[in-house]
Amino acid sequence: MRRFITTISIILFIITGFSASAFAGEKLLVAVAANFILPSEELTKIFQDRTGIVTEVTYTSTGKLYGQIVNGAPYDVFLSADEKRPDLLEKQGLSDKPFVYATGQVVVWTAEQTLCGATDWQSVVKNPRVLKIAIANTESAPYGTASMIALQRVGLWNALSEKYVFPQTIAQAFQYAETKSADVGFCAYSSALSDKGKKGCFYTVPEAPTIVQSACILKRTENRSAAEKYVEFIRSHEAQKIKEKYGYR
Q: Please, where are the H alpha helices in the chain?
C-alpha cells in the first residue's frame, strides 16, 4: 500500500510540477499597452507562479511600444491597444499572425463629486467648472484617438481645445484626473473599476469607437516556447474571466 501511495505521489508531482520545472530559468519580455496594466499584473503573477517563467512587462503607449519594436527592442510578445500596430508588424515580417485578446472602451472619469450628478459625459466636459481635461496622446495611444473621435462626433473637439492636457498614456490620463491635476479624464473603463476609480464617478462614451486590442508573438523572440505558453494562457477561459473583471470583453 505504501509503495502504491508513493507511486501516486510521484505521478502527481510530475503532472503538477512539470509545467514550472520545464520552463524554470526562462525569461520573457512582454510589451503591454498602458490601459491593460491592472489585468496584466494579475495575469502575469498567475503565469509566473504556475510556469516558473520570469516575465518582465513594459507598460507604455501602443505607439511608443511599436516604435521600440521596429527599432529592435528585444520583446517576445506584444499586447497592443489596437489592431493596427500588430497588423503592421506582421506585414513587415516582424511578428506571427496577430489575434484579439481584449475589447475595451473609453469612459469619462472624475474625482470631483460635484460633477457626479450630470446626465451624461458631454454635460461633464462642458461644465464651466471643468478647466482641464486629460486625454491620452491622440497619435500614439489608441484610447486617446478614440477620445478625440468621440469629441469630434459631438462637435466639441475644437470648442474645448484650450482645456486639453495630453499625457502620454491612458493610464496617465487617469492619474491626472485621480490626483486632480485635471478636472476630468478620458480613461479606460478598467481604471474606473479599480479601487481608486471607485472613489470617483464615470460616464460611458457611446460615441467613442470600441477598442479592439490585438497581440502577437514577435519573430525575433529567442524564447518561443515560453512565448507560446504565455499566449496560450492569456487566451484561456481562466484569463478571460480575469479580463472581464476589469471591464474587458
A: 2-23, 37-51, 62-70, 84-91, 121-126, 142-153, 170-178, 189-192, 224-234, 237-245
Classify 186 as helix, strand or coil: strand
Give the strand pairing for 54-60 and 27-33.
parallel
The strand pair at 184-188 and 99-104 is best described as: unpaired
**What are the grid coordinates assigned to 16, written together?**
503538477
Interval 169-188: pLDDT, tens = 999 999 999 999 999 999 99
Tens of pLDDT, residue by residue over 95-110, are 999 999 999 999 999 9
pLDDT band at 3 (very low <50, low <70, confident <90, very high): very low
Instruction: Please tell me the pTM assigned to this model.
Output: 0.88
pLDDT exceeds 70 at position 2 = no
What domains, with CATH codes, occur in the chain?
A: 2-103+211-245 (3.40.190.10), 106-204 (3.40.190.10)
Residues with Cβ within 8 Å of residue 142, at least 6 apart in sequence: 33, 62, 80, 81, 82, 84, 211
Residue 95, helix vs strand vs coil: strand
Distance of CA 180 to the CA centre of its chain: 23
